[in-house]
Amino acid sequence: MKTIKQIAIIGPTASGKTGASIALAQRANAIIVSLDSLSIFKEIDIASAKPTLLERKGVEHFGIDEIYPNEAFDVTHFIKLYQKAYDYALSLQKPLIIVGGSSFYLKMLLDGISPLPTISADTHIKVQMALKDLSKSYQMLHQLDKEYMQQIAPSDRYRIEKALAIYFQTHLAPSHYFAKHPPQSVIAHELPIYSIATDREILRQRIRLRTHTMIEAGLIDEVCYLEQKYTRTPHSMKSIGIKETLDYLDGRYTKDGLIEAIITHTAQLAKRQNTFNRSQFNRTIVVSLEELYRLEV
């Protein structure tokens, strides 16, 4: 069976992953899959800090500009996106580089997820009726499957909806359903994972520089456009860079305050990403950004 070489690059936001991955892909004639929960959206260009078409330098990308900001996206969609990218790279016998800060998606590729049942029209109607009283539905599920529902907040409508759909469709408590349908890894072969070592102060400087660049590039105008077209309802409108700009438009920040808020929240995100990566990936190859640029794929 034909296979292709794959590597993954992880690291906190603003650590230089994007530039390094494009340089590697150019040298190796590789295809890139972006692990970024904001770059996936069309029209969110500045807030996501996604590479422009010019910056991509002819390298084919999957996971950038795939859907609109008001469309839903979760790990199951990402797995389908990865499989599409893999099949395409396989057909051309090109290497695949998986890169980005949303490494939860990478974790799911390695660990796999359980296949969800096909939801009938009748089940969908029952679920929507139940969701009219979210608290009551949560309590019902909690009594049915306490261990599973302890992982879900009573206000988490999305995950409650998924649990209801499983129960109404299969007549099984979610934990029983998942026990009968265990997850299977999507990536069958060993995957080298390169983790970028970052000095905290240098990373902070990079975050500050990137934030100022985003403001100068027109972040405020972009958020005004997104709010007018999509309202503030979509989950994407609560992302770092967008939510602070909306607060600025509401008068909660001065422009300097807006910049500092984005820097602070981005630095906090970077810390969470580092913690997640250290705890979830045991066999990473730690490299500096300079070493990553010299890597041979």
Describe how the helices and strands are arranged:
Elements: E1 6-10, H1 17-28, E2 31-34, H2 53-56, E3 61-62, H3 75-92, E4 96-99, H4 104-111, H5 121-130, H6 134-144, H7 146-149, H8 157-170, H9 174-180, E5 193-196, H10 200-217, H11 219-230, H12 242-249, H13 255-280, E6 285-287, H14 289-293
Parallel strand pairs: 1-4, 1-5, 2-3, 2-4, 5-6
Could you please describe the fold and organization of this structure?
The structure is a single chain. With 297 residues, the protein is α/β, with parallel strands linked by helices. It has two domains: 6-112 and 186-293, P-loop containing nucleotide triphosphate hydrolases (Rossmann fold), CATH 3.40.50.300; 121-180, Histone, subunit A. It has 14 helices and six strands. The chain has a six-stranded parallel sheet with strand order 3-2-4-1-5-6, sandwiched between helices. The longest helix is centred in the last third of the chain and has 26 residues, at 255-280. 33% of the residues are buried. The mean pLDDT is 95.
Number of strands: 6
Low-confidence stretches: none
What composes the largest sheet? Answer: 6 strands, parallel
CATH superfamily annotation of the largest domain: P-loop containing nucleotide triphosphate hydrolases
Please state the average pLDDT score.
95
Q: Concise description?
A:
With 297 residues, the chain is α/β, with parallel strands linked by helices. The protein has 14 helices and six strands.
Keywords, please?
2 domains; alpha/beta; Histone, subunit A; six-stranded parallel β-sheet; 14 helices; Rossmann fold; 297 residues; globular
